[in-house]
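EI: anyone free to look at a 173-residue chain?
SC: sure, send it
EI:
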Amino acid sequence: MTSPYGTLTTREDGTRVLHYERRLSHPIEKVWAALTDPDQIEGWLARADLELSQGGRVRLEWLNTDAEGNQAIAEGTISRLEPPRTIEFDTDIHGRVLWELEPEGDGTLLTLTVTATLPDEYVTEVLAGWHVHIDFLEDFLDGHAIDWPNWPIERWTAHHERYEAELAERQRS
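SC: here you go
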């Protein structure tokens, strides 16, 4: 069984690699649509404008804000596209975001790998952010889109606290 929590590695050049695996109880075609259809993407991640082709443009506008009230916008290109299993976005603020899908029984094994340059002070925030978005994807696939003006920040906070504690423990050992 895979852990719902992400892992973090830091390469010699300082680049961070965040890795998540999650078994979803939905068929690959349904998960693929949630990752690639702009109307569906907005239900769990961000307002999306994308050209679904290799080299196509991507613009993701997060509809929630950070603690300072800032709203993130990522722009880039689709650097890898292998329907219905793989899509990778190469973005300006979130680095490379690779979504991989593998059929597993009547469900799908989702793997998310984010490769980015992150300052130390943002690592746990980003770990918690991607974690909660995968949670939101599961909710969306179950029929529950996120109400962005009232998004459940307490879910992000709980994940953030867990990742902070885990990272602090790793640094002590």
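EI: Residues 7-172 form a domain with the Alpha-D-Glucose-1,6-Bisphosphate; Chain A, domain 4 fold (CATH 3.30.530.20).
SC: 👍
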